[in-house]
């Protein structure tokens, strides 16, 4: 398994989403919220536009129970963290993209291909806490922080733009994320996190188990199950609050950090996109990603 050396320029965007439809719904909900609570939400507006200053942070750690050194594994000749960074740089909504890591080997690799790096503590419990520490160390006033999973080397820049715009258009939400259609074969895979949303596009719950779960105990091939994509954006002010919130029972049981947001009563906007999920969770996923890239002529 090879480690770091930088490669060539990124290829074009993969796939198109159902993002516009989701954003229109979000805008309508936002308009209703402002109409009902105009004074409160107007006080939330920043000069120069609502939540207009956006930073993308890619948390990366070397230690992993399932895949040690995962950010540095090569995907067709490039470190995975480089491929993720290159695609994030293509997003039009991001003013700045940085890698946040506690490992000097990863930091050296990232600086080698031109990425800005923020060194963070080994004490961070998850990617969200690492993003918060990186935001503090950046020392700049950002309104939105996008937590970009370093193990999504084929992340679509349009999805990044979609969740940012969704959060900007949902003043009652502090968090936004994306889902796509779940393949029936992934229904019982605990590494594929499922999501259910309400009629206005706000998250109800996330689970490693199949949700909803019918009384037959089997995956219903006709039901539109939703797969959570790891990318998420936070209101920067809320991100500073997040580490101070005590761990919650559902968060600990499912080992899903976004559940702490829901259990504390905060709202989370969800957009649905058309995207094949190609995250790297275990070493065997590398071959699958490389096969897909060859199939699509991605270098």
TrEMBL record:
EC number annotated for this UniProt entry: 2.7.7.38
Transmembrane segments: 18-41
Pathway linked to the protein: Nucleotide-sugar biosynthesis; CMP-3-deoxy-D-manno-octulosonate biosynthesis; CMP-3-deoxy-D-manno-octulosonate from 3-deoxy-D-manno-octulosonate and CTP: step 1/1
A Pfam match: CTP_transf_3
GO BP annotations listed: carbohydrate derivative biosynthetic process; small molecule metabolic process
The keyword Transferase appears for this protein: yes
GO molecular function, one term: 3-deoxy-manno-octulosonate cytidylyltransferase activity
Enzyme class: transferase
GO CC annotation: cytosol; membrane
Compartment(s) where it occurs, according to its Swiss-Prot or TrEMBL record: Membrane
Substrates-to-products reaction catalysed: 3-deoxy-alpha-D-manno-oct-2-ulosonate + CTP = CMP-3-deoxy-beta-D-manno-octulosonate + diphosphate
Lineage: superkingdom: Eukaryota
Keywords annotated in UniProt: Membrane, Nucleotidyltransferase, Transferase, Transmembrane, Transmembrane helix
InterPro entries registered for this protein in UniProt: Cytidylyl_trans (IPR003329), KdsB (IPR004528), Nucleotide-diphossugar_trans (IPR029044)
Keyword Nucleotide-binding: no
Family statement drawn from the similarity comment of this UniProt entry: Belongs to the KdsB family.
Name of this chain's protein: 3-deoxy-manno-octulosonate cytidylyltransferase
């Amino acid at each position: 398994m090879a480690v770091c050396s930088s490669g060539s320029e990124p290829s074009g965007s993969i796939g198109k989403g159902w993002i516009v439809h989701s954003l229109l719904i979000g805008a309508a909900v936002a308009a209703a919220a402002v109409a009902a609570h105009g004074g409160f939400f107007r006080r939330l507006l920043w000069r120069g536009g609502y939540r207009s200053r956006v930073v993308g942070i890619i948390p990366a750690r070397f230690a992993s129970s399932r895949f040690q050194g995962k950010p540095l594994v090569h995907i067709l000749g490039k470190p995975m963290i480089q491929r993720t960074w290159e695609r994030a740089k293509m997003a039009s909504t991001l003013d700045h993209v940085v890698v946040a890591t506690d490992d000097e080997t990863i930091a050296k690799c990232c600086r080698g291909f031109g990425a800005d790096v923020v060194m963070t503590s080994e004490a961070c419990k998850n990617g969200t806490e690492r993003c918060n520490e990186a935001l503090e160390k950046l020392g700049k006033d950002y309104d939105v922080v996008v937590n970009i999973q370093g193990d999504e080397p084929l992340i679509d820049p349009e999805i990044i733009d979609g969740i940012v715009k969704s959060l900007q258009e949902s003043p009652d939400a502090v968090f936004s994320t994306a889902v796509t259609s779940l393949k029936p074969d992934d229904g019982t895979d605990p590494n594929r996190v499922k999501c259910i949303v309400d009629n206005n596009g706000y998250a109800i719950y996330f689970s490693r188990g199949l949700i909803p779960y019918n009384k037959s105990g089997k995956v219903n091939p006709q039901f539109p199950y939703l797969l959570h994509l790891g990318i998420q954006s936070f209101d920067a002010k809320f991100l500073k609050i997040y580490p101070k919130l005590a761990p919650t029972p559902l968060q600990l049981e499912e080992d899903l950090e976004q559940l702490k947001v829901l259990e504390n009563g905060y709202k989370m906007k969800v957009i649905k996109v058309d995207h094949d999920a190609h995250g790297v969770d275990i070493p065997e996923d590398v071959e699958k990603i490389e096969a897909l890239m060859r199939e699509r002529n991605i270098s």
